[in-house]
Amino acid sequence: MGNTHILGHVHIVQTDRHATVTAEEVFFAAHLAGFSAVHITPHYRDPNHPEAHPTDRLLWEVDRQEQLRHIAQRFGVKVHIGVELDILPVFDQGSNGVTGFVLDGPLPDTTLSPVIVACHFTAVLWHKKSDGEQSPAQRTEQMMVAYQQVLESPGIRINVIGHPFRHGGDVSPSQLFQLAQIAAMHDVAIELNVNQILEGDNRLLAPATLDALRMSGVAIYIGTDIHTRENLHFCDAAMGIKDLLLRTIPRGQIIN
Fold this sequence. Notes:
By secondary structure, the protein is an alpha/beta fold. It contains 8 helices and 9 strands.
């Protein structure tokens, strides 16, 4: 992805059922904030309705991708079409216990980039089945297992781990360092999620967190997770967070 200013991890009404901001609004805000490109990353499956069929708004058709690129050109930015996939738990039919984790898919288009993988299941599927029996520490530990299983699965192309531990409990710097090391081994980036940070998750910019990321050498991806017009100020926030990171993180470690 290089070191250009790319607005990462964006959802728009043209691609996501639960998004309300348009491509035009995002591209204009990105241009004003100084970004040269935008990553549109539609959810493969609506996280609010994981049992439903994967969305039909994914931009897999070449003509729909071209339409979006023409819109982007009007605002002086480029657009890259990616996808956000869920890591899903596999439940034992008898005990309802979690026996493993799989990546939702498969992807019909191998050109989609970036491929972001994320855990939404603790807020939806997992909550319905087992959350009542899980402590925050247990949820965090199972998320570690989920990330590791997916990263180590053969033949799966992943670019970014999206908002790690957002739906889990507290994560220690040692756990984050462990995940970052595994991700770095597989040439996968860790996302610092602007939405998560602005919601008050101060763990992501804590000195211990930044030290763990820096020491692991893992690539860092700044994702906004924009979904609504009210989120458009995330563009400016992303630039500010990047400037903050550059005080302690080598420039080459931040990929967008």
